[in-house]
Write a structure and sequence with these properties.
By secondary structure, the protein is of the alpha+beta class. It has helices spanning about 5, 55-60, 75-80, 90-100, 110-120, and strands at about 30, 35-40, 45-50, 70, 125. It has one domain: Outer Surface Protein A, domain 3 (Alpha-Beta Complex), CATH 3.90.930.60. The strands form 2 sheets. The protein has a 3-stranded antiparallel sheet with strand order 2-3-4. A two-stranded antiparallel sheet has the order 1-5.
Length: about 130
């Protein structure tokens, strides 16, 4: 297999990648600015989502739904969220998670990759 053949291999951690050289661990995620968030005294991160649009307005009026939804991250997610700062790579974030949680974070990079991808799918982060 020559070098040209290697660039045609899909990266399993990044299905949209076009080459094996495109390493997801080198990505630098950053939080989008459209969501506010804070951390409580126990360290739990809460992300606030404003419910906009016709459907949401109707639900707010008729069903007394909240104008703002709150997403409370679990312990590991609350640790990871502030690390997504546009400076650290996915690999760097993984190292910090490993230091903090040890074996509880394993399998570290498959879990972290899935978590980062999910945050991106929902529009909470970019990379």
């Amino acid at each position: 297999m020559n070098e040209n053949d290697m660039t045609k291999i899909k990266n399993p951690l990044n299905p949209s990648s076009k080459s094996k050289k495109d390493n997801f661990l080198d990505y630098i995620p950053i939080r989008t600015e459209k969501y506010l968030w804070d951390t409580d005294e126990e360290g739990t991160v809460t992300i606030y989502i404003e419910n906009k649009g016709v459907f949401h307005r109707l639900a707010q009026m008729l069903l007394k739904k909240a104008k703002v939804s709150q997403i409370h991250l679990e312990k590991m997610g609350s640790f990871i969220w502030p690390l997504i700062d546009g400076k650290r790579t996915v690999y760097d974030i993984g190292q910090k998670v490993s230091e903090q949680f040890g074996d509880k974070a394993e399998p570290l990079y498959p879990r972290l990759t899935l978590y980062i991808r999910t945050l991106k799918e929902y529009g909470f982060i970019e990379y």
